[in-house]
Amino acid sequence: MGQRPSSALTKMTKMTNAGKKTKQKTSAPALGAERRAVVVRKTRETDIRVELLLDGEGLYQVSTGIPFFDHMLESFAKHGLFDLDLSAKGDTAVDFHHTVEDVGIALGTAFREALGNAAGIRRYGSFVLPMAEAKVEVAIDVSNRPYVVYRVELNNRMIREFDASLVEEFVRAFAQHAGLDMHINRSYGESPHHVVEAIFKGMARALRIALEIDPRQQGLPTVKGAL
Predict the structure, then answer these.
(1) Which of 58, 70, 92, 121 is 20 to 30 A from residue 162's alpha carbon, by CA?
(2) Residue 127 CB contacts under 8 Å (≥ 6 apart), including other chains
(3) H/E segment holding residue 158
(4) Confidence class of residue 25 from pLDDT cuts 50, 70 and 90?
(5) Helix/strand/coil for 201
């Protein structure tokens, strides 16, 4: 689904790999620079690298060792118009939990670093996304005060070998490290595949709105002086 670059994102400027020896290394943009970041996260359970360009074209290269999760992350990049190069190796023979949660941590960190000081962004974004019989609502505040309301109940959680309950773990890790106040609500829907896909696409569309630069916004979108 969408364009899959061969090795590196063809529209992204090559980013530095400095700091790969550390457990987690980030590289953030300077003021006025492209909003991009690279994050490397290594633990005893996972080894993850994320390269992100916020103002992209929806190009992606994703490999986590979990096919359905790859599909969701690809949809996330495509619908958010984020250029994303993400590779993850984890102890998937034990469980998918560590890989899914740690990808959320690394991806959230990349978003926070790519955003820089957040000057000029719209800050708020929401989207109602239908997917066949399912409908999901997503609302986001890029507040740097993480909070998650996740109201998604499913009678059947399994999508082949992927447990849909792991999506909540991803969402909480992602929101915590990206600094997002995120509300996700399943209005209705029975197919776990449709509901989960609506969540990822809805998050992407809401983030795309919230992170967009508003030409009328001068400085930070807050009276506090900082996010």
Answers:
(1) 58
(2) 137, 138, 202, 205, 206, 209
(3) strand 158-159
(4) low
(5) helix
Residue 124: strand pairing partners: 141
CATH of domain 24-210: 3.30.230.40
Decide: residue 15, CB within 10 A, 0-12 exposed, 13-18 middle, 19+ buried.
middle
Cα distance between residue 216 and residue 96, in whole Å:
44
pLDDT band at 227 (very low <50, low <70, confident <90, very high): confident
Residue-wise pLDDT tens digits, 40-64: 999 999 999 999 999 999 999 999 9
User: How far is it, in rounded angstroms, from Cα 221 to Cα 207?
Assistant: 15
Query: What tokens were used for 58?
Result: 């929806």
Q: Is 126 exposed, middle or buried (CB count within 10 Å of its CB: 0-12, 13-18, 19+)?
A: middle
The C-alpha angle 9, 104, 206, rounded to 5 degrees, equals 75
Q: Dump pLDDT digits (tens) for 95-129.
A: 999 999 999 999 999 999 999 989 899 999 999 99
Question: Is there a contact between 1 and 74 (Cβ–Cβ < 8 Å)?
Answer: yes
Q: 126 CB contacts (<8 Å, ≥6 apart)?
A: 137, 138, 139, 140, 206, 209
Distances (CA, A) of 179 to 31, 108, 111, 203: 19, 8, 9, 14
**Whole-structure pTM value:** 0.86
